[in-house]
Give the backbone structure.
Amino acid sequence: MKSLTKISLILALIFTGVVSSAMAQRTIEMVGTDNMKFSVTSIEAEPGEEITIKLTTKSQIPKQAMAHNVVVIDKDANVDEIANASARARDNEYIAPDYEDEIIAATGLAGGGETVEVTFTVPEETGEYEYICSFPGHYPAGMKGVLKVQN
Ligand SMILES: [Cu+2]
């Protein structure tokens, strides 16, 4: 009975540890509006850090005409090329299947009033990683930002 109490105490401690480390994870919240800009255009993170990017779209326009996402792209990738290909990939939520290896993380599409999020591990390699909205026309209009990975 005594050892059982000990075990449950240990389990409770482990559980608390897991929960608090999950809560320590950073969430970056941003908004996308009809002006096709992210409200946050620069994120700093440590190599290997787990972060959540949360995007809310504010718009009265129907989703098929105005939606946003956040697509984090590998730093050596050709962002223009990925944006162009993704803008044509409507059936895949505007993520070009051919470039999925070069995409570090992507949210789903958020129409007006919707919130989407993605949790991912920041690359170990320091540097600047661009993130874009891949909805047609939005990246060319300047809907982008930079994830700066630094120690
Ligand atoms: Cu957008």
